[in-house]
Design goal:
It is built from 19 helices and five strands. The chain is mainly alpha-helical. Strands 1-5-2-3-4 form a five-stranded parallel β-sheet. Helix 15 runs parallel beside helix 17. The N terminus is likely disordered.
C-alpha cells in the first residue's frame, strides 16, 4: 500500500522524521517560501521596452506576456522569503534531507531560486500529485504547502501609504496662516485639500515602491518597506492606487476645478519623478523642491487667498536645501555601510562635499530672502509689530545649521522634514517661531 505524503502547516514545528537522512522536503514556492507573488515580481522586473513592445501589438495573447515575464531578470538573492520556512529547510538540509521546490509556473525562475538557496531542484505540483517523474521516493516526502495569508494589518497599510509623510501636506495651510485668513470656511476647504493631497501622495508612494522593488531590497533601511519585505501583496497595492487617486479627484472637485488642475500637475510631476526625473542629477532635487512649493500654491488656490511671491521664493530655497540634505544623508549612509554608488540615482558617494555645500548655500539664501521680506513694505499691512519678525532670522539660522550638522554626523534619517517633526530641538524652535509670529500680529 502506498504511503501518503506527510503534510504540515508551516506554523507547526517541523516533524523530526523530516530531517532524517533519505527524507525529502518539498516546499511550495508561492504561498509558502515566497512572501510575494512570482507573477507580480516578474512583471515589475521585466524590461519596460519589452512590456511596451507587447502592449504596442507584439505577439498577441497571454503566451507572449508569459514569455516576457519568464525572461525577466529577478534578483533571487533579495526576494522576500519566509524566514520560518527557510529556517526549516536549512535545518532539514543540515540533517541530511533533500530539498525541492514545487512550482507550477515560471519554471526557470523557480530553478534559479532553488539554485540560489542551494536546494536540490524543482518539481511540478501535478507530477507530485500523480507521483510521476519524481527524482525521489514519494513515500519519503514531507511537504510545506501554501496556506492562506492573513490580510495586511492597518499598521502595514499605514506604513505602505506613508501616513507619517502626511505631515508634509500641512504645507497647504501655510498660505491661509501667512495671509491671516484663518476662519472656518478657509480651514474647512484647506482641510479637504490636505486630504486630497494625502490620498494622491499615498497612491504615488505605492507606485514608486512598486517601481523601486529591486533597489529598495538592496537598501539597508528601505528593504523593510511593506512591499519590499512582502508584508503587503503587490496585487493589493495595485488595487489601492486607483482607489486613492479616485478619492483625491472627488475631494478636489468639491473644492474647484482649478485646484483639481493643480493636483493633476502634482500627480503628473510625481509620476515623472518616479519614472525618470529621480534618476537625473540635480533635476530630482529641483523637482522635489517644486513639489513641496506646489503644495503651498495648492493651499492658496483652495482657500482663495493671494499667494505671496516672497513666500514662494523663500519656500523654493528652503525645500531645495532640504532635498539636498536628503540626498546627502542617503549617500553618507551608503558610505558608512560600505555600499557602492546607488544604482537608481545619478549620484556618487564622492559627490558628498559638493552636495553639502549646495545645501548650506540654499539654506543661507532662504534666510537672506526672509530678511529682505522683513525689510520690505509687504509686512506693514499684515503685522502691527513687524520688527519682531527679525527674531525669526537667528532661529532659522540655528535650525538650518543644526540640520546640516546632524546630517554631517550621519545622524539624519532619509527625510529631513520628518526629522523636523520628530526632533525635540526642532519642535521647540518651530514653537518659538510660531509664538513670535503671533506676537508680531
Amino acid at each position: 500500500m502506498e504511503q501518503p505524503v506527510r503534510q504540515y502547516d508551516r506554523s507547526e514545528a517541523a516533524p523530526q522524521t523530516m530531517s532524517a537522512p533519505g527524507r525529502t522536503l518539498v516546499i511550495d514556492l508561492e504561498g509558502a517560501l515566497l512572501r510575494s507573488e512570482l507573477l507580480m515580481e516578474a512583471l515589475f522586473s521585466a524590461p519596460a521596452r519589452m512590456l511596451a513592445r507587447f502592449g504596442a501589438g507584439g505577439r498577441a495573447g497571454m503566451a507572449a506576456l508569459t514569455d516576457i515575464l519568464a525572461r525577466a531578470e529577478l534578483d533571487y538573492a533579495h526576494l522576500p522569503y519566509d524566514a520560518d520556512v527557510l529556517n526549516q529547510a536549512l535545518m532539514a538540509r543540515a540533517r541530511g534531507a533533500k530539498i525541492y521546490l514545487a512550482a507550477g509556473r515560471f519554471a526557470d525562475h523557480a530553478a534559479g531560486i532553488a539554485a540560489h538557496l542551494g536546494f536540490d531542484g524543482v518539481v511540478a505540483p501535478a507530477d507530485l500529485a500523480a507521483g510521476d517523474n519524481l527524482p525521489f521516493d514519494r513515500a519519503a516526502i514531507e511537504r510545506i504547502e501554501p496556506r492562506s495569508r492573513a490580510r495586511a494589518s492597518l499598521k502595514t497599510w499605514a506604513k505602505a501609504l506613508r501616513v507619517y509623510q502626511y505631515a508634509k501636506n500641512t504645507l497647504v495651510f501655510v498660505p491661509v496662516i501667512t495671509a491671516h485668513q484663518v476662519n472656518l470656511a478657509t480651514l474647512g476647504t484647506t482641510l479637504l485639500a490636505f486630504l486630497a493631497f494625502s490620498a494622491c501622495a499615498s497612491g504615488a508612494y505605492l507606485m514608486n515602491d512598486l517601481l523601486d522593488l529591486a533597489a529598495d531590497r538592496q537598501h539597508p533601511t528601505k528593504r523593510h518597506r511593506a512591499l519590499a519585505a512582502g508584508d503587503l501583496p503587490i496585487s493589493s497595492a495595485l488595487s489601492a492606487i486607483p482607489v486613492l487617486w479616485a478619492f483625491a479627484v472627488a475631494a478636489s472637485l468639491c473644492i474647484s476645478l482649478t485646484f483639481l488642475g493643480v493636483l493633476a500637475a502634482y500627480l503628473a510631476t510625481t509620476i515623472a519623478y518616479s519614472l525618470v526625473l529621480k534618476r537625473k542629477m540635480l533635476v530630482d532635487v529641483v523637482t522635489l523642491a517644486g513639489l513641496y512649493s506646489l503644495r503651498i500654491g495648492a493651499g492658496a488656490v483652495a482657500a482663495g487667498v493671494m499667494l505671496s511671491e516672497w513666500l514662494m521664493v523663500f519656500s523654493l530655497f528652503v525645500f531645495t536645501s532640504l532635498a539636498l540634505i536628503k540626498r546627502f544623508s542617503e549617500l553618507s549612509m551608503r558610505e558608512g555601510a560600505g555600499l557602492s554608488d546607488p544604482s537608481n540615482r545619478d549620484y556618487r558617494i564622492s559627490d558628498l562635499q559638493i552636495i553639502a555645500a549646495m545645501a548650506a548655500a540654499s539654506a543661507m539664501n532662504a534666510v537672506t530672502v526672509f530678511a529682505l521680506y522683513v525689510s520690505s513694505s509687504a509686512v506693514t499691512p499684515l503685522y502691527s509689530h513687524p520688527w519682531m519678525l527679525w527674531l525669526l532670522a537667528p532661529l532659522l539660522l540655528y535650525w538650518f545649521g543644526r540640520a546640516l550638522m546632524i546630517a554631517h554626523r550621519r545622524e539624519m534619517p532619509d527625510d529631513p522634514i520628518i526629522y523636523a517633526f520628530r526632533d525635540g530641538a526642532s519642535r521647540i524652535t518651530v514653537a518659538a517661531m510660531v509664538c513670535i509670529m503671533l506676537a508680531a500680529i
